Amino acid sequence: MQAVTAGGEPGGAMADGRADPATTEERFEPAAPRVGVLLPSFDALRTGGPPQIVQAARLGEELGFDAAWVGDHLSCPAPGLDAPSCLAAAAAVTGRIGLGFSVMLLGLRQPAWAAKQLVTIDQLSGGRLLLGVGVGGEFPEEFDAAGVPLRQRGARLDDSLAVLGDLLTGMPVDHRGRVLHVRSPGLEPAMTAPPPIYVGGRGEVALSRAARHGDVWLPMWLTPARIAERRETLAALAAEEGRPTPRTALLVLVRVGRDRDRDEAEAEAHIRGQYRMGLESISRWTLLDDVEGLTERLDEFVQAGVGEFLMLALGSRPLEQYELLAEVRSRLQSGVARGAVERTGA
User: Fold this and answer.
1) pTM
2) Is pLDDT above 60 for 21?
3) C or N terminus of the chain, fewer CB within 10 Å?
């Protein structure tokens, strides 16, 4: 819901200078994870006031985060800004941080128009686009508003992914899929190579889609043990497709604090305002802790195979949370790197 870059990219580099995140090792060895934050593009607590997208993007870059992400909804319980517009604004005021969709509801859009938006953001940012995609469906009213049948959302996403690479790189397309017939001339300007694709979702269909199309698998609301299990399935599915195993990223809902009652109240209000559910429904996957505790809990996910975190800061003051999450990022990345050195004896 809320789901490549210059600097610090894992997996080596491709010919055009983009990182290749699909590079994997035969045996998993935890490495320092990438850590990003979601920009406050949704007003889940209905506080009103001017949007903080520009300030948040600048602060995220200053604090050293690897990426800034935005969620993508036409309509949901919380008032929300247009995701491509937010990333374009962020591109104009930053120079290093990755800029991504978490995730773009690609099936709600006509593929050629979506490609034009994506190329534009990539051009404005100097090649820093990250593309998360997902099916959505938890808010059926936005599909009605877009004139898209809800039951076709998976097929539309698959049809779009089948042609997206060609659309982004300026190739003409004439493709008849399960539900979409996409016909387009070569679009200009174009990318030299598509950005890595983050495929959102935690179920079997999402894993299969990630194995076919993804460079990164991006679930949410899973335990470390379950992620480790799912990664094994993903590896087998990717092998069947003759593709490298996608890396694993994780979208996590977090709040750093020491006042448990206040933290739970802020998280409850945010989750209810954005997802139309209570904290108790997802408490086992929602991380409310101080800096040390949150670092330890995130490290459990790193040991299970997560190489990147997308952190949604809960509460009414997300930029204050960024400051605390930056300390978590520093401790997590330095701790994992230190552990890797100790294990290898380097």
Assistant:
1) 0.90
2) no
3) C
273-313 pLDDT per residue, tens? 999 999 999 999 999 999 999 999 999 999 999 999 999 99
Cβ(5)–Cβ(66) below 8 Å: yes
Report pLDDT digits (tens) over 23-62.
Answer: 433 445 678 999 999 999 999 999 999 999 999 999 999 9
Rounded distance between C-alpha atoms, residue 254 and residue 252, angstroms: 6
Long-range CB contact pairs, 263-267, < 8 A, 24+? 263/288, 263/315, 264/288, 266/314, 266/315, 266/316, 267/314, 267/315
Cis-peptide, bond into residue 103, ω within 30° of zero: yes
Domains by residue range for the chain, with CATH: 34-344 (3.20.20.30)
SS3 string of the chain? Answer: CCCCCCCCCCCCECCCCCECCCCCCCCCCCCCCEEEEECCCECCCCCCCCCCHHHHHHHHHHCCCCEEEECCCCCCCCCECCHHHHHHHHHHHCCCCEEEEEEECHHHCCHHHHHHHHHHHHHHHCCCEEEEECCCCCCHHHHHHHCCCHHHHHHHHHHHHHHHHHHHCCCCEEEECCCCEEEECCCCCCCCCCCCEEEECCCHHHHHHHHHHCCEEECECCCHHHHHHHHHHHHHHHHHHCCCCCEEEEEEEEEECCCHHHHHHHHHHHHHHHHCCCHHHHHHHEEEECHHHHHHHHHHHHHCCCCEEEEEECCCCHHHHHHHHHHHHHHHHHHHHHHHHHHHCC
19's tokens? 């990182």
Q: Considering only CA atoms, which of 278, 272, 270 is closest in space to residue 321?
A: 270
**Residues 283, 72: Cα–Cα separation, whole Å:** 23
